[in-house]
Amino acid sequence: MTQIMIKNMIDNIEVALYFFRVINPDNFYNKDKGTPLIDTLKDFSCYATIPTDKEFHAYWLRAKLRTTLGYRPKVVIQDIPFAAGKRFCLVINVSLPKILFVSNLFEINEEQWREVIDAIYNELLYFGVEISKRELEETPHIRRVDFCKNVIIETPVEEFIASLQKLKKTRAKTFKEHKETIYFITKKKKTCIYDKLCEVISKASSDENDASYKLAQELKTLQAFSNIHVIRVEQRLFGLQAIKQELKSLIEPQDITFKTLFTKKIASYVLSKHWTKIATEERFKALLLGEKEVNVILSALAKVAEQQQIKNVNPLFPLYPRLLAEIGEEATNKAIKAMRKPRTLVNYKKELYALVKHLPLYHMHLNDYRSITSAITNWDRFSLPININ
């Protein structure tokens, strides 16, 4: 039995590369035409010898091809005839942990940077494409990056997500998929929170000799005997402009490369920012408080007001937590705004949360919230006692 130490950081990243050589064109397909032999490791002179119909074309890696660990990244060669000086590009979307391990349950850390670069290079070579390692490290052409963190919590993920569903992330649409996944979505950003063990088990192969099948069986045994729950918090950023906007306080736009994104400081910053947009501790406590009877809520808040020597407390404060728990934050805010000025709601919530902040409250979901916050902020490690040999 192995204690697997997990220190999460980046899961998926999508980049575009321009210096590459196609060694085995037969590994790629296009329904209308074959893959051109491309050599850009030295220069772009080969473009002049490759005919063009002045149309965009994409050459995809054949579906049957997998890495030595059974993983198939997205690999596509794009022919963009009117791109100034860079007609062909190689777009790769790869889960960094899956390049190194059986599953992205096992994440990576900063010390594995060189190992990640070598693994991507070797796997692409296996697929019939040679790239420049230096370009991969220094490319500014980042099209997507997913930061992630796995956290062990006390309660089933499904129950915790049911509570999160009642909260509203600023300027985002909320979607709940099945019982164990919730999304907070804007045009270029997506916060995903889900049951990681459930996902790994459900996506495992049915082949008993496959590594993913063996991992799933280990996780099922672990759940049966230890009642472990693992929640995944993941922030996906789509497009270079969204990435630049997200990180403008940490890094200059011109300095954004694959290598500069590969740090726990940036991952922690991004995840913390979006996690607190979903729920501060005061908001989460108010939600849990609303599960109690109105008289209990009133008594609890009155006691805190007395202890903190706060006078002129609004007697309607118990109403907001109660509505929050029953109909959710978005519906509650909408109902109140329909009757009062928006500024009234802002001040009302500010005063309420000032009370709730000092409220002693025990709830397993609150413990889970604090575990997630600590893991994201402090980049806590955790271990899973499983055998992956």
Major sheet strand order: 4-5-6-7-2-9-13-12-11-10
Q: Largest sheet, if any? A: 10 strands, antiparallel
Number of strands: 14
How many domains? The number is 2
Radius of gyration from the alpha-carbon trace, in angstroms: 25 Å
In sequence order, what are the helices and strands, one letter per element? EEEEEEEHHEHEHEEEHHEHHHHHHHHHE
Helix content: 25-40%
How many DSSP H or I helices? 15
Low-pLDDT sequence parts: 1-6
Calculate the mean pLDDT score and round it: 89
C-alpha end-to-end distance = 9 Å
Structural class: alpha+beta
Shape descriptor:
elongated
Query: Strand percentage, roughly?
Result: 15-25%
Protein architecture, described:
The protein is α+β, with helices and mostly antiparallel strands and 389 residues long. The protein folds into 2 domains: 2-278, no CATH class; 281-367, no CATH class. Helices cover 40% and strands 22% of the residues. Strand 10 (173-177) and strand 11 form a beta hairpin. Helix 5 crosses helix 6 (211-226) and helix 10 (281-289) runs antiparallel to helix 15. It starts with a strand and ends with a strand.
